[in-house]
Amino acid sequence: MTNGSFDVLVIGAGPTGMACAIEAQRAGFRAVLVDKGCLVNSLFHYPANMTFFTTPELLEIGDIPFSSPNQKPTRSEALEYYRKVADHYRLDVRQYERVVRVEGSDGNFRVHTEDRFGKNDCHRAVKLVVATGYYDLPNYMSIPGENLAKVAHYYHEPHPYYDNDVLVIGGKNSAAIAALELWRHGAKVTLVHRGPGMHKNVKYWILPDIENRIRNGEINAFFNTTVCEIRERSVLLETPACRREIPNDFVFALTGYHPDYEFLTSLGIEIGKGECRPLCDTQTLESNVRGIYLAGVIVAGARTSEIFIENGRFHGRQIAADLVRKLAPQAAAHRK
């Protein structure tokens, strides 16, 4: 069945996708957001006690103030803020609808979706914006045992791991934060990183904390080390000195995430070599496929540290400006 026709359909209802829909609405276009999860799904799956590294005003979209008593807002505050923004602008958000394929071309796209119960729908749109982020696709290690139930690629909260042997794989912010929080809540933590030490970009107030815990022996750490195999009650490490087996109950493989290149290429979007940047106009953010725009972190390809909410939130304005130039006459005819 066909479930509506729109001027702009945004795939991905994160902060950047919301900003794109808001700017399209402000320009007079009918917009809809489609997301396979909930509103700001990636933020929802952040650690429960997470505090942002940035200040509230840098997370604002749609010129709606983000009020917080804290210099750095919490995950809970951010979720409440984006819910209020969605309510304020009466955004049309189709949650829990996975895009399974896109047909058609500029001016007449048909976006086929499937909900949690297997029901299929089709949305028609003149233009598409892809703002799918990257947090849903972890970088797998492709090692034996990675599919065991005790292995997770996301860290949420520490309580279930009290008095358990927990391995944290990674050397950046997410690994450092997880290791510290797990240790402070009674887990026996080992950290493994393939580099010679914690990554240089670990936040300045976190780095000395994790380094001191390691120096004091409170968190065990293996650097220049990789995980060879994950077993039911242990993990096998390849250290500079030797291959070593240590006891283990749970593993957090916080090895990073990547954009959905397969979905982008299915749309006909060209992916550059090396940094895997999708081809798009830097001014308008329109991809090499006419009528399909890119927004948010996927614009940077593999360099996911280049674009955050703080700068991706402005992509909606760039796209809306181009929509006004190209779509206004077309949309007027489309609505008749």
* Major sheet summary line: 7 strands, mixed
Task: Please write the CATH class name of the largest domain.
Answer: Alpha Beta
How many E-type strands?
15
Summed up, the helix count is: 8
At CATH level 2, the architecture of the largest domain is 3-Layer(bba) Sandwich
In one word, what is the shape? elongated
What is the CATH homologous superfamily assignment of the largest domain? FAD/NAD(P)-binding domain
Low-confidence stretches: none
Q: What is the gyration radius calculated from CA atoms? A: 22 Å
- Average of the residue pLDDT scores: 94
Structural class: alpha/beta
Distance between the termini: 21 Å
- How many domains in all? 2
Element pattern in H and E: EHEHHEEEEEEHEHEEEEEHEHH
Strand content: 15-25%
Approximate helicity band: 10-25%
CATH third-level topology of the largest domain: FAD/NAD(P)-binding domain
General description of the model:
The protein is 24% helix and 25% strand. It is α/β, with parallel strands linked by helices and 336 residues long. It folds into 2 domains: 2-137 and 257-335, FAD/NAD(P)-binding domain (3-Layer(bba) Sandwich), CATH 3.50.50.60; 151-253, FAD/NAD(P)-binding domain (3-Layer(bba) Sandwich), CATH 3.50.50. The two termini are 21 Å apart.
Features:
single chain, 336 residues, alpha/beta, FAD/NAD(P)-binding domain, five-stranded parallel β-sheet, 8 helices, 24% helix, 25% strand
Please outline what is shown here:
The protein has 336 residues and is an alpha/beta fold. The protein is built from 8 helices and 15 strands. 38% of the residues are buried.
